[in-house]
Design brief:
The protein is an alpha/beta fold. It has 14 helices and twelve strands. The protein folds into two domains: 3-182 and 332-345, Rossmann fold (3-Layer(aba) Sandwich), CATH 3.40.50.2000; 185-330, Glycogen Phosphorylase B (Rossmann fold). Helix 1 (18-28) crosses helix 14 and helix 10 (265-272) packs across helix 13.
Length: 349
Amino acid sequence: MTLMKVRVFCGYSNTGGIAYKIAEGLRKNGIKADSVVIDDHIFSYPYHKKLYFWGNKPGFINRLIKYYYFIKHTLLYDVFIFNTRTTMLSRKGDLKILRKLGKKTAMIYVGCDIRDKDFYLNSESKYTVCRNCSDSYQNMVGCIMEIKKNEAKKIQEAIDASFSHPFDAMILNGKYHYLYLLLELDKYTPDYSIKPGKRIKILHAPSDDGIKGTNYVLKAINDLKDSGIEFDFELLKNKSHSETITSIKNADILIDQMVTGWYGLISIEAMALGKTTVCYLRDELYNYLPDNPIINLNPDNLTEGLKKLILEKEKLPEYGKKGRAFAEKYHDYVRNSYDILKLTVGENK
């Protein structure tokens, strides 16, 4: 199978716009690829094609439609890159069929879809994402460990490659490739300027308060205000992706994840735009990315860390430049999408 001649399917989920970014990156490489989704994402990420069903309820007609789409896609594509444990048919039966048909397949795990909740609930670490996660969010993402493990086992047995962040991959037993998230860097123009006399603006834009540690962020912000430090703060929720990007452009500092122990997509977007980015990073992350320029603060030192950034605002442009260089080095969608395809197909040409 020659890489430049394959036809690539990316879907059916589009968490973080990942299916679209992989397909777009492959198109930039001259490879035929489409992102195909079943539902619009809550943050309105773009896609190439959307599938339509008869209403929103499962039933005989929709089962027939599913099989129609699946058969159609097996004729249109050679490589299938799924994400977040999502495939078309029940019990992941499509993965076995695709293998018998000689198709190459991959699964990309992005966080809660594979994260071992039991491990983090029993961790000795002071701050963990699962300990801070709400019941409502767990219900929304289907965080049931038995289901996660059973589905992951079926997936891992049937696919050619899987990709994950190491801190989320405990139940994969080491059988995965490191996932470097992807970003369309050509759409992000950095601005490193800090306007003289203008108050520093801090932004926090959580997709969910619990997993982002918003409670700790708000406490630090209130403590800063009480101490007399002058700055502006925006808490952004339930906005589209384009609206979020506009807010990042208007900010000087982005605070991302305070309990997860690593950085998310919005951190990469902020760095690509030349903004100083703050996260809580676990020490182990530096084993993978030793040159990570994100300002590493945790709930214990967030107030003092932000105070220092505000009072030493002349240093922010340099942090922004380092962040942009980091995003270019590790998160370019053109290069990373090609690497994902290469590892999935198992060829170097």
